[in-house]
Design a protein that fits this description.
The protein has seven helices and ten strands. The longest helix has 16 residues.
Amino acid sequence: MKIKRLLIIPARAGSKRIKNKNIKNFVGKPMIYYPINTAIKSKLFTKIHVSTDSKKISKLAESFGVMSDFLRPKILSNDKASLFPVFKFVVDKYLLLGQKFDEVWCILPCSPFLDKKDLVSISSKSKKLKKPILSISPYPAPLNWSFEVKKHRVMNVNQKKMRNDKLSKKKHFYDAGQVYCFPSNYLNKKDFNFKDNILTYELPLVKSVDIDTIHDWKLAETIYRGLHSKK
């Protein structure tokens, strides 16, 4: 039986650090074009939904082939709103419309480096193991090399740990914040919990640039151009 997958791309209006971040021009196209295009190319999803409170973003998504069935309420569109209530709102809305899904996916709108191979790999893993999956990336340096800086001075250095070869070889990861995938019944839980039995999909650092500031944006554009100039 074919798995019914719902993809949610959360793209509210009102970003503060980068104005109109989700629709700002990125290497020639609005940022939100990239996750939509990748999702369509993957042919994995029964429904792709751009969750937004903005009619402008909704119309732009429609121009890229994703029809908007409903807008997100303002109460779920402020700075304090977390993703899980947004997912639940979207899933409940579709249930009222008579549409039920086996898996719920999320791709964040500022994800220009993902490609359909990533999504296909994640879908293969989720189908076999039926557990939540989260995209991760490795820290670029060992954690034991870290220290604080106060008033331009190095603080709280643990030289013993810093020089420990075993600790330096140990790999640590963080939530890359690009893709989430989970069985739809997982939304009955109160919240996403890292203590749960969560599977991972590793993204290289070059695919997991966190775009929160203009500096991040410029770095991401430079990397994107470099990667695609070779093709």
